[in-house]
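Appendix B. Raw example, untouched.
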Amino acid sequence: MAGDSQLPLFGDGPAAAASPAGADGAAAAGRAAGGIAAPPRSATAGVGAAVVPVEVAELARRLPAGLHFGGSTWSFPGWAGLVYDRAYPVARLARHGLAAYARHPLLRAAGIDRTHYRPLPAAELAAYAAVVPPDFLFLVKAHDACTLARFPDHPRYGAERGQPNPRFLDAGYAAGEVVAAYAAGLGARGGALLFQFAPQELGPPARFAARLHAFLAALPRGPLYAVELRNRELLTADYAAALAGAGACHCLSVHPRMPDVRVQAHLTAAAAAPLTVGRWLLGGGATYEAAGKRFAPFNRLAAPDLAARRAWAELARQALAAGRRFLLTVNNNAEGCAPLSIAALARELLAPPAPREP
């Protein structure tokens, strides 16, 4: 998701697009079926929430406490009738859609990825926190300057493109430019601050683990720090020990570059934190570009991934049984529509466990 897909919550966005017949029909059907009424549009800064069907509201009511499911972000016009009462332009949803999004009873979390491209001031993060309920959690990406050993050869890095990165695993930079704003802006609504390591050359796994531990241990105490890898060879016992020693956790991810999430959980069990963090990103054999083209406008389950749902449900049950909360953000590119994936996952989680083979 491009960094501009989440805009500041200040200023006026473009005028709303005309409501499609499908969205109006879905809202009317929800009301006819006794769905949960949406708040007035004025209550959500110009973006209206969809009527929530009774079945979805009941799903949310039955979910155990401590589960926080949400989208990787919230600015998708294709969610008309599912999350929003109509189709709005992306920019309007990015600026004003979060409050309506947070009215949906299954959406108790959201990712913030703007922070991956540049640090945000505490005031902008506080604006996000101000429009969601007290039990809502954000999974926030740290600025990628913290996690790139060398800047990619890409125009967005300007004169630094292709050069070694002096801020790589620099705890002073991360503490001052990333952690401080995160903690001050989000407070208790900050679920975890995510340091995402893109595929890159990071040296021998043991050396990377040692550097990672030194970095995490030097950061301010208080926030939960999560680490996401794209180099599976770094997922070692040394890595797990580095996280555990610093009080951090591994971010479980469904992604073609990484092993099954249950394998990841097993390998990093030593780093279990009070909150289990996960991201359901992309199905096997796919790329973000191809999946995005195939699944747009992200309003249907185009590629159901039953195995991933079962794995996430199993991990959620394990976390809750151990007294840990469970935070999972879901990308549209996982199955085609994050809100529908979350509803399907909720049903999987509430279904009776399958009998074990004798």
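End of appendix B.
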